[in-house]
Amino acid sequence: MTKKIVIIGGGIVGFATGLKLQEKEPNAEISIIEKENEPACHQTGNNSGVIHSGIYYKPGSLKAINCKKGYDSLLEFCNQNQIEYELCGKLIVATNEQEIVALQKIQERGVANGLADLKLLGKQEILEIEPYTFGVKAIFVPQTGIVSYKKVAQTMAKLFQERGGKVHYNAKVIGIKKVNSVLYIETEDKTFESDIAVNCAGLYSDKIWEMEQGTPCEVRIIPFRGEYFKIKEDKRYLVKNLIYPVPDPAFPFLGVHFTRRIDGEIEAGPNAVLAFKREGYKKTEIDFSELAESLFWPGFIKVASKYWQTGMGEMYRSWSKEAFTKALQKLLPSIQQDDLEPGGAGVRAQACHRDGTLLDDFYIKESDQMVHVLNAPSPAATSSLAIGDTIADIVKKRLV
Q1: 121 Cα distance to chain centroid
Q2: Which CATH architecture has domain 4-46+150-218+361-399?
Q3: What phi and psi values does residue 142 have, to the nearest 5 degrees?
Q4: Max Cα-Cα span within the chain
Q5: pTM over 0.85
Q6: How confident is residue 249, by pLDDT bands cut at 50, 70 and 90?
Q7: Distances, alpha carbon 264 to alpha carbons 84, 146, 148, 238, 325, in Å
Q8: Domains of the chain, residue spans
């Protein structure tokens, strides 16, 4: 009997999982259901397009392992499918003496994760790479690159369908039932039968868990909006490639930085503010029920009490272009408010445990007939084919 597999979510992780399942289970009937009308409408399509090297991640963590494996697979995929990318490298810059110790620890992690040719630079060497950047020390990471992840996901979707996979758009999941070892995944227009299903629903992954389990999930997805400015075209010369600060190790966001995109635009940002709905890409978008779910989650209350000062600073920068510019000037002193114009925004699906832990690593949880991807932060796009391979192995074992 042909096995039926359903993947919920048509972002880059969902389609990468679909491709890997086609390799490992060629006789299975595999379907991807997506509530939007095309692939990669949310996290995949709204990120900065950076191909991450893996320098930040704890050696041995799922992030570190999958980033290295996924990085190699992503470049191979782009080469095979004529997808434009560029390994332009990036600078991680310490702007004061206090950040140098943290910078050195990042370099040590990079070496432990197998990165070769990392360079620790002084002030003059920084200026040779990024002439308008201020820093006392920096690491140059040659492996970092840029690509359009939306284009990668669209190519994955095309290949998945060409190989016999079925994609159903405009299919929002509203319920999951189990009857006699068959999963019935209900959408507004159709019910899908499945022997096993994979939850790649991103911003709603905890909701899919609760639909299947009938009990509250141990983590809650807290949406954080990242807002960008773009540098005006006549000032793009200020940034050659990618310029990052030394991140706060206690806070799971990298801080405002500069990113050259594959289309030539230069993004500045993002900040990280609580979004008032799960798909709240604008400041004015509010869903009171979703906001209440975030605010009254015990874990978020603990996070807010710990990071309230940082959070208020991020919120202030969200409303004040002047404050946002001052944050950028730490790395690029010559940047001015008039050099910036409004850019896009993305929403990060940040899993927060009930105990107040903001999950930093990938988190995959299994139930009887489902595999739930409950946390897939950056570098999930870089790592997508490796994550998909891991999920496909789990599914294959379950189908034996």
Answers
A1: 29
A2: 3-Layer(bba) Sandwich (3.50)
A3: -70, -20
A4: 69
A5: yes
A6: low
A7: 12, 10, 11, 13, 21
A8: 4-46+150-218+361-399
Q: Which two tokens stand for residue 252?
A: 């799971």
Burial of 97 (0-12, 13-18, 19+ CB in 10 A): exposed
| Angle (CA) 53 57 60, round 5° | 110
Helix pair angle (321-329, 298-319), 10° resolution: 90
Are the CB atoms for 290 and 343 separated by under 8 Å?
no
- What is residue 313's predicted lDDT score, i.e. its pLDDT? 84
Render pLDDT for 313-350 as a digit per residue (tens, 0 to 9): 888 888 999 999 999 999 999 999 999 999 999 999 99
Structure tokens at 377: 């932060």
Strands lying side by side in the sheet with 85-86: 50-51, 145-147, 85-86
Alpha-carbon distance values, 387 to 20, 68, 76, 242 (Å)? 9, 11, 16, 25
